[in-house]
Write a structure and sequence with these properties.
alpha/beta; Aspartate Aminotransferase, domain 1; seven-stranded mixed sheet; four-stranded antiparallel sheet; 13 helices; binds pyridoxal-5'-phosphate
Length: 398
């Protein structure tokens, strides 16, 4: 059984803050500052360029990738970590298209995170020649997977509503018509059990700064099914993916038979120091326990809000099997209401047009925080304190 008191003690939550935003930016691991200082003083400062060999920097994309792999059901040597999630989406969809050269249609849904759609729109523009992106409503995805489709690209858990796709059903349908699937695990990795190998995922991508707590701008990851690694086209053909980076050939040859070919260029080694400290917290965590606890807490939260707070409406499914690990409520005055919550140290966020979003992260959130948060929300709604002028001002990041 996962010891959530222990995981909580390893994370630094400011005194008095109820942090319901670990789905967007996880809190700082207490070991983070020391890990960063150790990297500065004992690696960069003393080793300088030797560090690429002596401190293993050159292969951290892979060694850390393996640690992330364990948390998404990926076997060793099938995940590399670096770059940003937007770049990884581009890379995975591009690689997927190359695997199905006779088709030009990419299918996604209207609930996908905009950057995923934007990256695909950019890719389509670059490729010209009849490539097209079709987006359908999330519930219509399964039926829209036809033998015209080359790549299906979806985010498993909807960033706004928390609605979760039936990953296995979509993969099976896609494979039955010869299409390839790219899954974005941004709101799944570290939130719910994911089994990329067992469900036969082709490509998966995700970030580390959400549920994994690696800090703002923490690097992204990409998984490629072992059966594809031999043949997959890297698309972004950088020197880190070359067969012999230090041969300095003028022609690109992808690293044969290895996930290394999905590497691009020099990663942010400093950010790896924090990521490693963040992953230490996951060493004794069982994601099945996280899921069980998250469902209990989401049910409690929804029940308490619905019985005490007027005017707010649950977004997304009621059936917890169809939900990730965050809960959003639609409310006409969602933006100022969230600002009023934040002023009272209940930290969630707002997603246009009207959603107040709350991440449920059992590593550091328990029943006491849920109940306290609902007390404060109830009070704000009853007293209409969200109407105050200072809550109406929109910040750049909501
Ligand atoms: C958070 C998130 C992103 C963010 O992409 P970055 O490149 O890290 O800014 C992309 N896609 C989804 C589905 C997300 O939830």
């Amino acid at each position: 059984m996962t010891n959530f008191a222990k995981t909580r003690a390893m994370l630094d939550i400011p005194e008095g803050m109820i942090y319901l935003n670990g789905n967007s930016l996880g809190p700082m691991p207490k070991a983070g500052p020391d890990a960063m200082m150790r990297f500065m003083n004992e690696e960069w400062r003393t080793e300088l360029i030797k560090g690429w060999n002596t401190k293993g920097w050159f292969m951290q994309t892979n060694t850390i990738g393996d640690r992330i792999g364990k948390l998404i059901g990926a076997p060793k040597d099938s995940v590399v970590v670096s770059d940003t999630l937007s770049i990884k989406v581009f890379q995975a969809v591009g690689a997927g298209l190359a695997l199905v050269p006779d088709r030009k249609l990419i299918l996604s849904d209207t609930g996908n995170f905009p950057t995923d759609l934007y990256m695909v729109q950019g890719l389509v523009k670059l490729k010209e020649d009849g490539y097209k992106l079709r987006t359908v409503a999330p519930a219509a995805v399964l039926d829209a997977i036809t033998d015209e489709v080359a790549v299906v690209t979806l985010t498993e858990v909807d960033y706004r509503t928390g609605r979760k796709h039936d990953m296995k059903a979509i993969i099976d349908k896609a494979h039955s018509v010869g299409a390839v699937v790219v899954w974005d695990l941004a709101h799944s990795a570290g939130a719910i059990p994911v089994d990329v190998l067992g469900t036969d995922v082709d490509f998966a991508v995700g970030c580390t700064y959400k549920f994994f707590n690696a800090g703002p701008g923490g690097p992204a990851f990409i998984y490629v099914a072992p059966r594809l690694i031999e043949t997959v086209e890297p698309v972004l053909s950088g020197w880190y993916g070359h067969e012999a980076p230090f041969a300095f050939d003028t022609d690109y040859r992808p690293m044969p038979g290895k996930i290394d070919r999905m590497r691009i260029g020099t990663p942010s080694i400093a950010s790896f120091a924090i990521l490693e400290a963040a992953l230490d917290i996951w060493e004794d965590v069982d994601l099945n326990d996280v899921r069980t606890r998250s469902i209990e807490l989401m049910e409690l939260f929804i029940h308490e809000v619905e019985s005490r707070c007027d005017g707010v409406t649950l977004a997304g499914p009621r059936n917890m099997d169809e939900r990730g690990s965050h809960v959003s409520f639609e409310f006409e005055h969602g933006y100022p209401c969230m600002q009023a919550l934040i002023e009272r140290k209940v930290i969630g966020d707002f997603r246009a047009p009207n959603m107040m979003r709350f991440g449920i992260t059992p590593l550091f959130i328990g029943e006491a925080e849920i109940l306290k948060a609902v007390d404060i929300l109830e009070d704000i709604l009853k007293t209409h304190s969200y109407r105050e002028d200072r809550f109406q001002v929109r910040s750049a990041v909501t």
